[in-house]
Amino acid sequence: MVQHLSVAERVASGKAARAKVPRSLHQDFEPSSNRADPVQLLERQAATRVPELVPIRYGRMLVSPFTFYRGAALIMAHDLDSTPRSGLKVQACGDAHLSNFGVFASPERRLMFDINDFDETLPGPWEWDVKRLAVSMLIAAVDNGFAARDQESVVLDTVGSYRTAMAQFAGMNNLDVWYARVDIESAIAEYADQLKPRRVKLAEKQLAKARTRDSMTAFSKLTVNVDGELRIVDQSPLIVPIDQLASGRERDEMFEVLHQLLRNYRQTLQFDRRILLEQFRLVDLARKVVGVGSVGTRAWIGLLLGRDDRDPLFLQMKEAEASVLEEFVGRSQFTNHGERVVAGQRLMQAASDIFLGWLHVKAGLDDQPRDFYVRQLKDWKGSAEIEQMSRRALATYGKLCGWTLARAHARGGDPIAIAAYLGKSQSFDRAIVGFSKAYAEQNERDYQALADAVKTGRVTAQTGM
C-alpha cells in the first residue's frame, strides 16, 4: 500500500537520514583489503557476451582513463556498495556518467537534453548516481588538462546544481515536477552569458547537426542497393549484415526468428504506435557493436521501409542483462530486463522514444533465453564534445547534467526528503569533491590494471575500433 506522508513528515525523514549519515561521510573512499580484481569483474561480464567482440570492448576502454571509466559501471557498483548511504532511494540510472547525457528529439519534435542510457537502471541510492556523475566530471577535467582548482570547481558546480535543483523540485507541485524538462535551445539561451560567444555558436552548430541525425541520415550511410534491393552495408566487425552471418536456409531461418521477435515487441507499444509501426515492413537486419561498456552484448539493427524506398525506419534491438546494481540493492520487480530498462527510462526521462519497447527470446540464435529492449537507432541524437570544452564550458555542462539528474530522481524518488538531507550549504558538494578525487585515482589504477592484463596476454584488446 502506498504511503502518503505529509510535507513535514518527509522533511523530517530527510533530516533524520542526515543525522544518521552525515553529509561529510560521503567524501570517504578507501578501497577495501578484499576489493575485487577489476579485470576479473570485466572478465565475468565477458562470459555472457559475444566472444569475438569482447576484445573491441577492452580496446575502447584502453583509449583513456575516461573511456575506461565509461565501461567500468560494474567495478564502481562494487566500490559504492561499501560507501555510506542515506537510506533514501530513487529510480537510479546506475551509470550516470557525463557521456550518458545528451540531446534527442521528443515526440513533439523538440530537441531535449536528458539522460539517454538506462541499461543499468534500478531503484537504488540517489547518492550513487551523483557520485558516478561527479567522478566522470573530474576525470574529464583532468583529461582536458585543467588545473586542480578548476577540476574542483567543475565538480562543485555539478553537485551544487543537483542540490539546488532538488530544492526547487521539493517546492513544486507533483505535476509541475513531472512536466519539468530541458528544451536545449532554451537552455543555451539561459547559459549563454556564462559562455564565450564562440562556444555558443559551436553549441548551436552541434544542435543543427543533431537534427540531421535521423533515419534518413542513417539510411544514406548504412544502406546500399544490391540487385534492386536495399541492404544494410557491411562494416564488419562493427556492423555485420545478416547475410554475412549466415547463408541460404540458415540465413532465412535467422531472419524469420528476428522478424518474429519484432512482431512480438509490437505488443509492448501503445496502440497508436503499434498501428504506426505496422505500416513499415522489415527488409534487412545486421548485428551492431554499440557503446563502450555495452560492447559484446547482442545488438541488432533492423531496416524497415514505409510507403516507399525513401521512407526508412531504423530500429535497434539491444540485449538487456541484469543491472550492475542488482547484487547490491536487490533484484528488479520486472522479470524481463528489457522491460526493466524501458520502465526505468520512461520514469526518469521527460519524454521517451515513441518506439521504445521490449521483448524476450525463449531460445535465441545461440539457444539461450535473452531479454532485449527496442528503440529507434537515430532520432536527432547528439552528444557533447567533452574533449573540446574549456573549464567554463565543462562547468556549464555539469550544471545542466546536475539539474537533469535531480529532475530524474525527483520523478522516481522523494525530492522533499532528499532536499532536506542535502540542506542549503555546500557540505555535501565538498564531500563529493573529496570522493571524486579519491575515486579518480582508483580509476587510474584500474585502467592501468587492464593495460597490464593486455600486455601480459591475460586478455586481448582490439584497438582502433
Q: Which descriptors apply to this entry?
A:
globular, 465 residues, 2 domains, alpha+beta
Explained architecture:
This protein is of the alpha+beta class. The chain has 2 domains: 7-211 and 389-456, no CATH class; 215-376, no CATH class. Helix content is 49%, strand content 14%. The protein has 19 helices and 13 strands. β2 (101-105) and β3 (111-115) form a beta hairpin. It starts with 6 loop residues before the first helix and ends in a 9-residue tail after the last helix.
Task: Itemize the secondary structure elements and their pairings.
Layout: H1 7-20, H2 38-46, H3 54-61, H4 65-70, H5 73-80, E1 89-92, E2 101-105, E3 111-115, E4 122-125, H6 126-143, H7 148-170, H8 174-179, E5 182-183, H9 184-191, H10 197-210, H11 215-222, E6 223-226, E7 229-232, E8 239-241, H12 242-245, H13 248-265, H14 271-277, E9 281-288, E10 299-305, E11 312-320, H15 326-329, H16 337-348, E12 357-361, E13 370-376, H17 391-412, H18 415-422, H19 427-456
